[in-house]
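The methods section describes the discrete structure representation at length, but only in general terms. What matters is that the chain and its backbone geometry are given together, residue for residue. For illustration, here is how one protein appears when written out as sequence plus structure tokens:
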Amino acid sequence: MKRILIVEDSDMVMKVLRHLVQSAALSYEALYATSLAQAREIYDQFPGEFFAALVDLNLPDAANGEIVDFTIGHKIPTIVLTGSYDEQRREQLFAKGIVDYVTKEGRYAYSKAVGMIHRLEKNQQISVLVVDDSDVSRKHMANLFRRHLFRVLEAVDGVDAIKVLLDNPDIKLLITDYNMPRMDGFELVRNLRYKYDKTDLIMIGVSGESSEALSAKFIKHGANDFLRKPFHPEEFYCRIIHNIEALELIEQITYSAQRDHLTGLYHRSYFFNSARELYRQAQEKSAPLSLAVINIDHFSDINRRYGNYGGDQALKYIAGRLEQMLGRFLLARADSDDFFVVMPGLDHEKAVAFLSKVKQLLAAEPLSIQGEMQHFYFSAGVTAHLGSSLDEQIALAIQYLDRAKEAGGNVIVDDGDDDEDN
């Protein structure tokens, strides 16, 4: 298990930090020390198990910042707290490789320090690409990213960068030098913007050239930001974090706009927009496309027995289980206890076989509601008949669902059943 080391000798500050760490719900256990000696003892108990350290620069037994040498020496990403700002000391600390430097200027400063630990957690899942033909410059920027625990890839010019991007579609940020052979940074940004929106890929230009117009040229043609060399690590991190947090905010807003507020599944509007595109592709390619309308059997009984809270609890549970099993397809909450799912590549027989397994697995795992175990069953209508529109296909699936309900529920009715009736 990874841990966080927090070293602070002030009782008041330590109390604030403990509260903020608990409120932040970090996924790492926090261990606390009030001196360098205690920090050593804690580290000796859990060597190599520390994800990050938040340390006071001036301790009773380490008045000259020896705690930083200790944590950095053990390769622990370190955030420094200090009671005073000193330009020379700041330069020395960044040269040693600290993550950040925060002055004790009230609760906001402590929140910022704890927030940086959370930022390091998230950075581990973010891939970045550094593009520069200079080995020294490229390695320097790559090391700055690694200090903040980003996943780092490298490219020597624009042509190489495009190859790396194609092989690593999860890259979220690209930082590129301007003057490079084969394809320079400006051409790279301009070409990539044809494929990647600013909310898909952050691009930051860098250059040591003195031209004042270069930054505007980069940004006008697609860069999110620009840095002039040589830059201080603190400026580098401020720009990087600002751009990443802006992207994360947009992703959060987009996610919320597409999702049902209760279950977290896609809502009707998003479903219809996406399903129409899948329908169009299936028609063009003459490919199978099954659509299912699912309804939870006797769900009104849950609401009557346990009230709205119990009903909401059940819906969230059911939606979560369906997401686990059907998440690779387009799944949405249509209304109340109705769900839509579009399954590209599956004809009605394969779709029914798959949904039958889903139904079986859902029924096998009960949910405890107000101390009582409840099993859930569903009925479904499934069709692979494309008809003349998506709406027509949904209408047919609903007809099949109605027949499943008339048969008593816990049944899947599909095109094969319709053929038998005819």
Q: What stands out?
A: Residues 78 and 269 are 46 Å apart (CA to CA). The longest strand covers residues 289-296. Residues 3-121 form a domain with the Rossmann fold fold (CATH 3.40.50.2300). The mean pLDDT is 92.
